[in-house]
Amino acid sequence: MQLLSATTRRQNLNALQQERFDVLVIGGGVTGAGVALEAAVRGYRVALVEKADFAGGTSSKSTKLVHGGIRYLPNFDFPLVHESLVERGLLLHNAPFLVQPLAFVLPLYRGDRHPVGIPFTTPGGVGLSAVLDVGLTLYDLMAGRYGIARHRRLSRQEVLRYAPDLVSASLKGGFLYYDAQTNDARLTMTLIRTAARYGAVIANYCEVVGLQLAQGRVCGACVRDVLEGDEITVQARHVVNAAGVFAERVEALCGLRPQVGIEPSKGVHLIFSREDLHVGEAAIVLPETEDRRILFVVPWQSRVIVGTTDTGSGDLDHPLPDASDISYLLRHLNRYLSLRLTREQIISSYAGYRPLFKPREQGGSDTARLSRTHAVLENEAGLVTIVGGKLTTYRRMAQDTVDRLDERDGRQPRHPTLHLRLAGSEDWSLARPELKRQAAAAGLADDIIAHLLQGYGTETGKILELVADEPTLAQRLVADLPYIRAEVVYACRYEMAMTPADVLARRTSLILEDRQRGLQALEMVASLMAREHGWSSDQVQRLKEAYRQEVERQLAAEETRLSA
């Protein structure tokens, strides 16, 4: 198994300075990780740097769905839907432990005029059900051999059996269709680990502060080690800008006329307990809002995710929901559910920015109308930038980006990641029963076993080895959630976790799922990490305080929203 420890990171920093690479990828979100993997598998010598932690931005702030996007059908964005459905199918095959099918209930009510954003209506809404049936049939057909299961109509009684807390008055019936679900941060980390297996030299907390040019062409980057403060120069024949919402900032380092146009769109989500918001194993689609969006109510382990919004930008480095975002989501929840949910029942909320590609000649600022398609751009200095897209299509985005590099090198493009199993997926169907048996024999509870298998796949075996060597590592970090101490040690040795926030916010999701945002686990996490990394007591205190301050900043913002 590929080590990605603090020691590995130091070794990688030395390699970044001493070697000349074929490809330097800037950005460690899902897109950058995908590009690094694609290029490494094609035989390029690859480096990847990320200014903060892997998946630290948008790639850990999604609705946790791998989907074709039924809301793009009314916009006739058929190429994007088809591309997304194919990529959904590939992910179900290439990362079966991490991406699972998920049923969606789409209820229909009398009085709805634009369900799932249909741009037209009919008198009294008559016939809209037939229109949706046609649209979902098209959705199934576009998936082709990558489909999960065909959609079907539901009677009023069937809808309420799937989603008993829906308002029953005016409910006419509905549909059941299928997409998939994932853990976005763990998907990104899995891509990082897989790229490292293929030789990519990777480092987090390395910020690009300048681009190197020779004869007017980009040939590398000046990189600052955020943790130590040192600066190094990384040389590469190709430089790929996969910085997401920060892509414009990276391109500006060239000092040339900009090619990249990013329109950040904030997506806000709320997290509830299943005791407060009752859902089964199917997600619920809230079919209509005043701005013709659709909202999802998605089961996620012991919690429920509700989202998302599509609003303008703010602080890109520290995105937070505001009072209007929270009110918007609660208003529509309480419109369609018989419950009366309040702000006090929200366990946590989070926001992330979609890096929507906006042609520079396009005016206006309606982010909801911008396509989620992606574009590969190249400026006069030869900087290749990948912009736009969505979580589901990361692999296709990476493929198109490296195709551009192959074209520059005069190589015939090949697409090995189409059927490349990601780390943790090897012989999964055979390994899963045995890993489940071993975990049960180690005394782990059913929810912990399910969490480990879905998060780590065959690499669960490494976590079980840690538990066998040190049984106290089987203990939970938080009493009502399935995360255990061994995951902290694993994150330090194999996932380049460098701070408590890396573990609490991305290697696990405690900052989102825990009512105390991981603060009750902070002492134990810091202690285990200090043992792995050899931190001094001063370092431990400084890192714990940094995490507390981040949580307090979020909680203070929430208090402001609650009183608004």
From TrEMBL:
Signal peptide (from-to): none
Any one Gene Ontology molecular-function term assigned to this protein's record: glycerol-3-phosphate dehydrogenase (quinone) activity
FAD dependent oxidoreductase domain segment(s): 22-394
Required cofactor(s): FAD
Domain Alpha-glycerophosphate oxidase C-terminal: 417-539
Entry keyword set: FAD, Flavoprotein, Glycerol metabolism, Oxidoreductase
GO biological process: glycerol metabolic process; glycerol-3-phosphate catabolic process
Domain of life where this protein originates: Bacteria
Keyword flag Plastid: no
Family label: Belongs to the FAD-dependent glycerol-3-phosphate dehydrogenase family.
Protein name per UniProt: FAD-dependent oxidoreductase
Natural source organism: Thermogemmatispora aurantia
